[in-house]
Amino acid sequence: MRVAIIGQGYVGKALGIAAHSAGHSVVGVEIDESRVAALAGAIGYSVGSDFSSVAGSEVVVVAVPTPLDGNRIPDLSYVESACESVKSYVDVGTLIVNESTSFPGTLRNVIAPILGSDCLYASAPERIDPANEKWGIENTPRLIAGMSSEATSKALEFYRSFCKEVHEVSSPEVAEAAKLFENTFRQVNIALVNEFAQIANVLGISTNETLAAAATKPYGFMPFVPSIGVGGHCIPVDPSYLSYAAELAGVEASFINLANKVNISMPSYIASRIASLLGGSVAGRRIQVAGIAYKADVSDTRESPALALISELRRLGAVVSWHDSVVGAWNGESSKALESVDLGVIATAHSGVDYGAWSDSKVIDVSTAANTGWPKFL
Ligand SMILES: NC(=O)c1ccc[n+]([C@@H]2O[C@H](COP(=O)([O-])OP(=O)(O)OC[C@H]3O[C@@H](n4cnc5c(N)ncnc54)[C@H](O)[C@@H]3O)[C@@H](O)[C@H]2O)c1
After folding, report:
1. Which residue's CA is the closest to the ligand 1 atom numbered 11?
2. Which of 28, 70, 140, 203 lies deepest, with the highest CB count within 10 Å?
3. How many CA atoms does the CB half-sphere of 106 hold within 13 Å?
C-alpha cells in the first residue's frame, strides 16, 4: 500500500519503520525541519515537510501531539492543522487513520468533517510503551474500528500486515475510549499507591513491605509502585481527555480529577519530606537529583515530575544540580557528574548508573526501580 504518516515523532517514526519493513511504500510528513534533517537517511523511507507527498496515498495516518493547554483542556490544534494540510491531497476512498490519542468522537466529529465524506475513516490508537523491550508495535495488540465496514476492512488489512494481533471493535468511539481508559487505570492506581505511601508514612509502617504483603494474594490485586509522580505524554495527559469528554456530557470524572491532584502533588510532598529529613529546611543544602527523564532509559522529559521536584527544592532555597546520562541537557542546564552532596535523590533510575560518587552522601530513592541498592523513601 502507499502510506503517508503525518507526524514523525515517537509514534509516527515507529509506525513508519514497521510499515516500511512490511513492504509498504511509506512517506513521512513532518513540520519540524530539524526532525526531518535528523531522520533523513536514518530510516528506510522518505521524510519531508511537503504535504504534497501525501498525494496518491491509499492510507494516511495521523500521529501528531494531543497535549493539554494551559488550563488542562484537550488541545486538538495539531490534529486539526494536520488534517487541514493534507486535505487537498486526499482522494475518494483514501483511508484516514487516527493514531493520536484523543477523546471519543474525535475521528467522527473533528477529523472527518475537515477531510470530507469521500474518505474512509478508522481509529487505531497507538499503545506503544517507550523502552519496553518485550512489547513493541508488532506484538502489542492493536484496536481497530472504522466508521464504515469498508474503512474497517482496509484498516484491518493494513495493520495485520505488521501487527500480530488486531482486535476489531464496534466503533471508533470504543477504540478511542479504550485507549483513554487503559491509561486512566494506570493513573488512578498510581495515585492510589502514592496516597497509600503518605498514609503508611504517618502510620509508621513500611509501604513496600505492606505492598509486597498485599501482592502475595494470587487474585484480585495488581501491584503499583509509589514514586515521585507520573510523567510523559500519556499518563498525566490522557485521563484529562476522558474527564473533558465526561464533563461535556454532564458527568463529573471525580476519580480522574482526584488522581491528577494526588499525582501532581507528589513532588511537593517529597520536597517537604526531604526538608524534614534534612532537619526542617533545605535552604542552602546541596541536593543532587539523578534521572530527570519521566521514565528509565528514555530521554523524554515531558511532564517529568523530577523537574517539578527540582523547581520546588530550588524555590525552598536548596542548591540543586542534576545528573542524567540519557537527557544530557535541559532548560539551558547540563547534566553534572554525580558528586558528594548533602542529599542524593534517585528520581528516575536509568540502567547502568554508578551511584558510587554518592558514597559519602545521604541518598534516597523515590524512583519506580525495583532495586537501586538504596533504601526506598516512600
Ligand atoms: N509517545 C508515546 O509513548 C505514545 C504512546 C501512545 C500514544 N501516543 C500518542 O500519539 C500521538 C503522537 O505522540 P508522539 O509521542 O509521537 O509525539 P511527538 O511529539 O514525539 O511527535 C509528534 C510529531 O508530530 C509533528 N507534528 C505536529 N504537528 C504536525 C503537523 N500538523 N503535520 C505534521 N507533523 C506534525 C511534531 O513536530 C512531532 O515531531 C499523541 O497523541 C500521543 O498521545 C504516544
Report:
1. 100
2. 28
3. 34
pLDDT at 251 over 90: yes
CB environment 175-187: b (16+ within 10 A), e (fewer):
bbbbbbeebbebb
Query: Which residues is 333 bridged to in the sheet?
Result: 330
For residues 151 and 172, is the Cβ–Cβ distance under 8 A? Answer: no
234 is known as an active-site residue: yes
Rounded to the nearest angstrom, the distance between the alpha carbon of 216 and the centre of ligand 1 is 39
Question: Within 10 Å of residue 33's Cβ, how many Cβ atoms?
Answer: 10
Contacts of 362 (CB under 8 A, 6+ apart): 277, 342, 343, 344
DSSP state of 94: P
| Distance set, CA 342 to CA 318, 336, 339 (Å) | 10, 15, 10
Rounded Cα distance between 199 and 339, Å, is 33
Q: What is the pLDDT of residues 179-233, one digit of tens each?
A: 999 999 999 999 999 999 999 999 999 999 999 999 999 999 999 999 999 999 8
CA 289 – CA 309 distance, rounded (Å)? 9
350 lines ligand 1 (CB under 6 A): no
Cβ neighbours of residue 86 closer than 8 Å, sequence gap 6 or more:
4, 6, 29, 51, 54, 60, 115
Cα end-to-end span (Å), the chain: 51
User: At 345, which helix (H) or strand (E)?
Assistant: strand 343-346
How far is it, in rounded angstroms, from Cα 335 to Cα 265? 25
Alpha helix (H) residue ranges in 87-128: 106, 112-115
- Give me the pLDDT at residue 321, please: 98
Closest residue to atom 31 of ligand 1, CA basis: 82
Q: Is 6 in the pocket of ligand 1 (CB under 6 A)?
A: yes
Average pLDDT over residues 77-91: 98
